[in-house]
Amino acid sequence: MRTKEFLGKLEHDRIVKAIKDAEAKTSGQIGVYVQRGKLNGDPLIAAQKKFHRLRMHKTAERNAVLIFVAPRARKFAVIGDQAVHEKFGEAFWQRLVDGMRPHFQNEKFSHALAEAIEETGRALAEHFPKRSTTSNVLPDEIVES
Predict the structure, then answer these.
(1) Dist. CA 113–CA 10, nearest whole Å
(2) I need a labelling partner for 46 at 20 to 30 A (CA). Which of 78, 97, 121, 145 fits?
(3) Taking CA 6 as the corner, what is the angle to CA 4 and CA 106, rounded to the nearest 5 degrees?
(4) Which H helix or E strand runs over 111?
């Protein structure tokens, strides 16, 4: 699927609201990135590279999560920073991906992303609750390039 077509099917406001609502309860940060063009290789490796390019590893508590989507390749990945991964474990990431997959296959992209954001937000709030000093360091918008 072409990236433009994918983006046209997304309910941007719904996804941004899901990010803001999730981040309102946690010091963690959630990002959604859409890769334009082809993706050669493993989406997990591409997500890790994008995570660092977006400087998501610079959060104070190392508690950022990135949902990476490559529509043209029909691939996606979800990754978290060091502290998040230590708290959540591999099973959490696999459960998120497994939950998103059928929605993506049925082209319910917004539903897949919103559900993943909401579940991530609940987990982040449990392990990284909001503090009075918490600041939103990452954009709540869908990032694409």
Answers:
(1) 9
(2) 121
(3) 160
(4) helix 109-127
What does the domain layout of the chain look like in residue ranges?
3-129
Long-range contacts at 85-92 (CB < 8 A, ≥ 24 apart): 87/123, 87/127, 87/128, 88/123, 88/127, 92/123
Question: Taking the alpha carbons of 1, 47, 111, 114 in that order, is the dihedral positive or negative?
Answer: negative
Domain at 3-129: CATH architecture:
Roll (3.10)
**DSSP-assigned beta bridge partners for residue 78:** 67
**Contact (CB, 8 A) for 39 and 6:** no
One-letter amino acid of 113 = L
The pair of three-digit structure tokens given for residue 48, joined into one six-digit string = 């890790």
- The one-digit pLDDT tens for each residue of the chain (145 residues) are 888 888 888 899 999 999 999 999 999 999 999 999 889 899 999 999 999 999 999 988 999 999 999 999 999 999 999 999 999 988 999 999 999 999 999 999 999 999 999 999 999 999 999 887 666 667 778 888 8
Terminal-residue alpha carbon distance, the chain: 16
pTM across the whole model: 0.93
Contacts of residue 88, defined as CB under 8 A and 6 or more positions apart, other chains included, come to 80, 123, 127
